[in-house]
Amino acid sequence: MQPVPTIKSRPVYPAIHVDPSVAYHLFIAGTGAFPSLSELYNACDGERSCWVIGESLQHISYKYPKGCHFIDESAMQETFSKLFATLPISTNLYLASKQESMLWDIHRLAVNAGLGQEQIKKLEPLSNERRLFCTHCYTLTDGVTYTPYECPGCKRLLLVRDHFSKLHSAYVGVQINAEDPSDIPEREELI
Ligand SMILES: [Zn+2]
C-alpha cells in the first residue's frame, strides 16, 4: 500500500502498532513526546532502542527507559544519518514529536538511508505548530500556529495552506493580500 499524501495535501497518520515479526525497533521522540510512545515501547519485546531529542537532562522528571539515548536537536542529522545506515534490514522506526516538521525531517533522513516508507511509523504530531515555507522568498519558519503569518524573510502576509511539502517538512505559504497589502485578514488559529 502506498502512502497517499504527496506534495499537495496534509499528511495522514494512521494508528501504529508494534510488528512482532520485525527484528529491530527504534523509538525516537522529540522534547516531551516520549510518553506518547511509551505504550508502544513497553508493548515491544523485540530488540529495541530509544532516542530522545532536545530534552534538557537537568529538568527531566519523566522516567525514561533504561539505556535511552539523549541528543541535541542540532546533532540530529549527523547522529541519525549514521545510525540509520547501520540498522538491520528488518527495522521499524516509531516517531513522536510536538512538531510535525521534526517527524518529517527524521523520515527524510531514514528514507535517504534506505528505509522504506512503510518502515517509518509516525504518531500524529502533538501540537499544531507548523513549519512554513514562503513561496516568495523561500524562508522557512518553525513554530507557526496561526494564519495569515508575516514572513520574517520578505514581510509578506502569508496564507498558511494545507499543502505540505515533504522536501521541506513544511506547509506552503502564499501572500494573501497581493492585490491590496493594506487588507489584513483576521488571524485564525491553525488546527
Ligand atoms: Zn517570504
List keywords for this structure.
single chain, 5-stranded mixed β-sheet, disordered N terminus, 191 residues, 5-stranded parallel β-sheet, binds zinc ion, alpha/beta, Rossmann fold, 2 domains, 3 helices
Give a quick rundown of the structure.
By secondary structure, the chain is α/β, with parallel strands linked by helices. It folds into 2 domains: 24-122, Rossmann fold; 130-189.
Provide an overview of this structure.
This protein is of the alpha/beta class and 191 residues long. The protein has two domains: 24-122, 3-Layer(aba) Sandwich (Rossmann fold); 130-189. Helix content is 17%, strand content 29%. It has three helices and twelve strands, in the order βαββαβαββββββββ. It has helices at residues 35-43, 76-85, 100-112; strands spanning 24-29, 47-53, 69-71, 91-96, 120-122, 130-134, 140-144, 146-147, 149-150, 157-165, 170-175, 188-189. The strands form three sheets. The chain has a five-stranded parallel β-sheet with strand order 3-2-1-4-5, sandwiched between helices. Strands 7-6-11-10-9 form a five-stranded mixed β-sheet, with no helix packed on it. A hairpin with a 5-residue loop joins β6 (130-134) and β7. The chain is elongated. Mean pLDDT is 92; it is low at 2-7. The structure holds zinc ion. Residues 134, 136-137, 139, 151, 153-154, 156 line the site of zinc ion.
